[in-house]
Amino acid sequence: MADLKVGTLNVRGLKNGDKRRAVFGSLRDTKLDLVFLQECHIDSEDTRRRFGEDWQWGPSVWSAGTGRGDGVGLIFRSHDFAVTAVLSVVPGRVICTDGTWRGLRFRAVGVYAPSRIGERRGFFGALAPLGAPALQGGGEPGGGERVLLRASGAGGGGSDRAAPCPPSSTFCIWSP
């Protein structure tokens, strides 16, 4: 299996066109294959569509929210990725993406948790249907920069540290 380089970035807003072009240009020039974006400030379908049109170096998926800092995205820096399904689990906060990469199926889940500790327990509890037992404890303050990866072979085994993947997946990436 080829190396897959994954990153996460809190962009603190992408509505400003100059800032969006600068961030997208920097991400285009990185060695990362996919990047989870948090706090994109996506509040409408129009904004979501515009962000998708502006990222031209591979597929991208976006979820709009209702709060000022809401909005998450996942950008792929290669057309080797094909997105087959997108689910905005918690609008503007959690996006689940299924797809293929170089013949392998994957599920990538981007999570932008609430900053208030009291809001996290219910928030992470809502992720249980996605198979995220490692995330249900409520999270740690400032702990939103971890990426958990599970790669499965023919036997379906994988790392015990990672959130479980659906049986049909070859690998699963979580960005809480």
TrEMBL record:
It comes from the Eukaryota. Gene3D superfamilies: Endonuclease/exonuclease/phosphatase. One of its GO terms (molecular function) is catalytic activity. Pfam families: Exo_endo_phos. This is Endonuclease/exonuclease/phosphatase domain-containing protein. InterPro entries: Endo/exonu/phosph_ase_sf (IPR036691), Endo/exonuclease/phosphatase (IPR005135). Residues 7-79 form the Endonuclease/exonuclease/phosphatase domain.
